[in-house]
Structures are given as structure tokens and as C-alpha cells.
Amino acid sequence: MPDPTSEFDDPTLAEQVEEYDRLFGIVGDGVIGAAGGLAGTALMTGVLFVAAQVGAFSFESFASLADPLGLGDAAQPVLVGYLIFLANGMVPWPLLFAALMEYLPGERPPVSGMFFGGALWTGFVLGFYTGYTGLTLALYLGFTFVAHLVYGLGLGLVFEYLATRPDSLV
């Protein structure tokens, strides 16, 4: 009967197993990132919804995301823009967070995520500004900042939960 451990003595097979594990880890990180991004974007949308109710944010500004892709003339440009916003919240931002997490302040991923969300806010607050003034401007700044903090919190909580489970994907 052949020794089951002898197959790993073959360097080619060992490299294939290592590469498979690395690929599985990358895909696993992507799944965790997408789940965290979805949770964070859902939380953020809730805060933005409250801001819209008090007149401090307009979901119409999401339509501007559809324009660079030539989708500004779509039947529902706000919906298309929001889907682009959601995709960005689920793919590139979580991947960047995963890459930078260990360099961000905070002992735990949720705290690091809040710092990350605060950094993302600096671009959002300028990109989605639609001419608010006075109290409405202060509310816009406050609500969008809180929205980004909860995005980072949600992202970090999911990263922490899924990455530390005993049966984790990675």
C-alpha cells in the first residue's frame, strides 16, 4: 500500500496544492469583501435615506455615476447610478480595505473600517455635493460622514466575523 504522504514529496504536486490554497484564499477574501461591502453599503444607504428625508441628501445625485459609462440616458439613471455605487461598495473599496487594514489605526477591523470610511468620505462629500448651504450643508456633511463611518463599521464587522471563524473560507 502506497504511503499517502509520499505524494507531497513530489515538488510539482506540492506547488499545485500551494497555488490552489493561495487561489482559494484570494477568492475567499473576495467573498468576505463583497459580503462586508454589501453590509456596509446597506447601513450607509439607511443613513443616507434619513438624510434625504430631512433634505440633506438627494438620491438623484447617484445619476451622475451613470454618465461616464454612457448610461445617463437610461430609463432609470438614479437606479443605474445606485447599482454602480453598490458595486463600488462591494468590490474595489473592500479590496482596498483588505489591503490596507493592517496599516490603518485601530486594534480591530471595525475600528479600522471606520477610519477607512472616514477617508472615503472626503471624496464622496465633494463628488455628491449639490449646492447645499447653511444648516442643510452642515446636515449634509454630518449625515454623509456618519454614513461613511457606518459603512466602515459594517465592512470591518463582517471582515472580523468571517475571517476569525474556525471554519472560515480563508
From TrEMBL:
Q: Which residues cross the membrane?
A: 31-59, 79-101, 113-132, 138-163
One Pfam family from the record: DUF6789
InterPro entries assigned? DUF6789
Record keywords, A-Z: Membrane, Transmembrane, Transmembrane helix
What is this protein's record name? DUF6789 family protein
Is the Transmembrane helix keyword given for this protein?
A: yes
Superkingdom, taxonomy of origin = Archaea
